[in-house]
Specification:
0% strand; mainly alpha
Length: 77
């Protein structure tokens, strides 16, 4: 009797090979996504300061001078 074998079948078994690499890449990818979302949420190049509620402020602040000056001191004799 003759026994035939299928010699073209190749079985590759990778036990624990590269699982540490996959975990490291996954952690790096998650950190990158968190950083990207943080950057989008809090502004690109923001100075980190919040709005003080002043509204409409520009580079040149304005100074308002009162229209009625302080009364002058009485003259002494």
């Amino acid at each position: 009797m003759t026994t035939q074998r299928d010699s073209s079948t190749v079985v590759v078994s990778d036990r624990d090979g590269g699982s540490g690499t996959n975990i490291a890449l996954a952690v790096i990818a998650v950190i990158a996504v968190i950083v990207l979302l943080w950057w989008i949420a809090f502004g690109q190049g923001s100075n980190g300061g919040g709005d003080n509620g002043g509204g409409g402020g520009g580079a040149n602040p304005s100074l308002t001078i009162p229209s009625n000056p302080l009364p002058s001191a009485p003259a002494s004799s």
